[in-house]
Design brief:
Length: about 290
């Protein structure tokens, strides 16, 4: 028996009963019904904290349905019987603690490097910043990892109006989404970033993964602040960039390429590695340090 309140960080629906027959307006000044038939006829469903006698029974299938609503699994495809990535697959899930949920997740393959990216973003005071990070950060990382020649190909394609080759293959749950309204603004900021990388880079040279992660984190943080300061003529975008900047989020990202694993984080999001011991048991190894004020 689960009551209509937060239980295990899940808000479940409660069923309440009210007598509306004596009131001129539905459910105003309602008193306790005189019969079970009346109570059943005038039931009102809603999310609310309720006394102990208002209960809602969840069956095991219903519990599983709640737990699996945002579940996502992906198996990395093989070519000629060989897996080109050291990652065989991954599973991710979300369980809302708030309604709407403030957290976001992302997973993608870098098409130019074949490395895989995974990220978890914990939104603060809303989902706006976490949503922006889930859409944008991987592009900044992927662009930073590109060699000078690939960056030049990107810029030449945009300059000449030709379609650009995708740099990421996203692996998203059907409920995950991108903000179409902000996509043009996001692309403009990303292009400015790779133009600066072109000016600073030298043909034949390429940043390492660790340096690329740090650079991408810092640059996106700077762009979010700058976009909020400059604003936008479009009323929705102006409101959106302010929400992104003023809400905030943590970010924890892992990049896996071959046998190399790099992890970057800001805030208190943690990455934990499961290590199998010689006896077959597993131990948990924390890979990040919390950044707390």
């Amino acid at each position: 028996v689960i009551h209509g309140r937060r239980f295990g960080r899940i808000l479940v629906p409660a069923m309440t009963f009210q007598n509306c027959s004596q009131s001129p307006h539905p459910c105003i000044n309602a008193t306790q019904p005189h019969s079970f038939e009346q109570r059943w006829r005038h039931q009102v469903r809603g999310y609310r904290t309720s006394p102990a006698w208002h209960t809602y029974y969840l069956t095991p299938p219903q519990v599983n349905s709640i737990l699996k609503a945002n579940e996502y699994s992906f198996k990395v495809p093989e070519f000629d019987g060989k897996n080109l990535s050291s990652v065989m697959g991954f599973d991710s899930n979300q369980l809302p603690a708030n309604v709407p949920i403030e957290d976001r997740r992302s997973a993608a393959t870098c098409l130019q490097t074949r490395g895989m990216l995974y990220g978890v973003f914990d939104g603060h005071a809303g989902c706006a910043c976490a949503q922006a990070l889930s859409e944008r950060l991987f592009y900044y990382i992927a662009v930073t990892l590109l060699p000078h020649e690939k960056l030049m190909d990107l810029e030449n394609a945009v300059e000449s109006g030709r379609p650009i080759h995708p740099i990421l293959q996203w692996h998203k749950h059907p409920n995950d989404y991108f903000s179409k309204e902000a996509s043009r603004l996001y692309f403009s900021s990303l292009r400015t970033y790779w133009q600066e990388l072109l000016d600073l880079s030298v043909p034949g040279e390429q940043l390492g993964v660790a340096e690329a992660l740090v650079s991408a984190f810092k640059r996106l943080d700077s762009d979010i602040s700058l976009e909020a300061q400059v604003g936008d003529p479009n009323a929705f975008l102006h409101y959106w960039v302010l929400r992104v900047a003023f809400s905030g989020a943590t970010a924890c990202v892992a990049h896996i390429d071959g046998n190399e694993l790099h992890v970057a984080n800001t805030g208190d999001g943690r990455a934990v590695l499961g290590v199998q011991e010689h006896d077959g048991s597993f131990s948990a190894l924390t890979l990040t340090n919390d950044h707390n004020a």
